[in-house]
Amino acid sequence: MPLLSRTLHGGDSCVMGSSAWQVRLVCMLLQTCGGYFHKGSAARKLDRFLAYFQRYILAKPPLPLDIDFDVQVLLCLHLSSLRSFGPSPLHLDLSTCL
Fold it and tell me: How many helices (H) and strands (E) does the chain have?
């Protein structure tokens, strides 16, 4: 998780531009290895990270539709008990993902 946090909150010059690649990177990483964070304290850490990730996304300009869809799928897979915040052009209902 520290790598993901540094990726989102880094101060390099490449971070200052569009953040779409960072969001896509986090989505790909969590789709690949997020299944290992479903028990115990790891699940609580993942839930906390996803809450901050949603806040990060809401603070940025609107994402391209393909990345927004990846984010909605990611939240659908990992936030079955929590709700998604913020407007989405896709209006994906998380209750239908189960």
Answer: 4, 0
